Amino acid sequence: MAKPPWTLTGNGYIFVFKFPHAFVEAHGFIPDHLEGKYHGGLGTVMLVDYLTSPVGPYREALFVPGLFNYAGHRLYSITKIFVSSIESVLDGQDNWGIPKELARFNITPVSDAIDRFTMSQDQRVLLDVTLRTRGPQIPLNTRWSPVKPRLIQHFAGRDLITQPAGKGRMSLAHIEDICVNQAGFPDFSDIRPLAGFYAQDFTLKFPIPQLVKDGSAQ
């Protein structure tokens, strides 16, 4: 097992949304411990190709619906996530409580600016997205952000809070075509993103999480 902290590098697409409450409550895969606690705010879908990690390269698709009210705080949570590595599944669950599931991924370059990203599980295609990047690259560092997003996750009777940090270069991105199987992943295909980005050559750090006891992080 690869214990935290982790440092990962890679490339990925980030799409920012304002998901309707009804959509999240019906299709957001909200776990039992967060039922009735959805607040709203900005959410995201991320499609990532990790080139290096403590458990080797792997790919990932995740859904964050927005903020949840938890113990007097407003925190984000990953409610649905698939990865291509069983080591990432097991360590992600144990280290940070992230509810990772195993799937098969394929990223096919269509042209210099277009990729096709597909994800399947048990012979079912769950996600098929064609993505385009455009514009110049600009540097990004979460250290500069006035908002430091924190995740609340639950696993094996533990509530864990984690604050990831990252840096890299970003350009604009948008979705050219999309098909989602809502039985396995939230079907966001009819919701227009507020913004889309392609993060290239990023470094992401996942620290040791804080264990929540009696409503406060330790």
Element order, helices and strands? Answer: EHEEEEEEHEEEEEEEEEE
**Poorly predicted runs of 5 or more residues:** none
Mean pLDDT: 95
Broad structural category = mainly beta
Can you tell me the overall shape? globular
What's the number of structural domains?
1
CATH superfamily: Acetoacetate decarboxylase-like
Q: Count of DSSP E strands?
A: 17
What does this structure look like?
The structure is a single chain. The chain is mainly β. The protein has one domain: Beta Barrel (Acetoacetate decarboxylase-like), CATH 2.40.400.10. The chain contains 2 helices and 17 strands. A 10-stranded mixed β-sheet has the order 8-7-4-3-1-15-14-11-10-9. Strands 12-13-16-17 form a 4-stranded antiparallel β-sheet, covered by helices on one side. A hairpin with a 2-residue loop joins strand 10 and strand 11. The longest helix is centred in the middle third of the chain and has 11 residues. It is globular and about 50 Å long. The two termini are 23 Å apart.
Summed up:
The chain is mainly beta and 218 residues long. Helix content is 8%, strand content 56%.
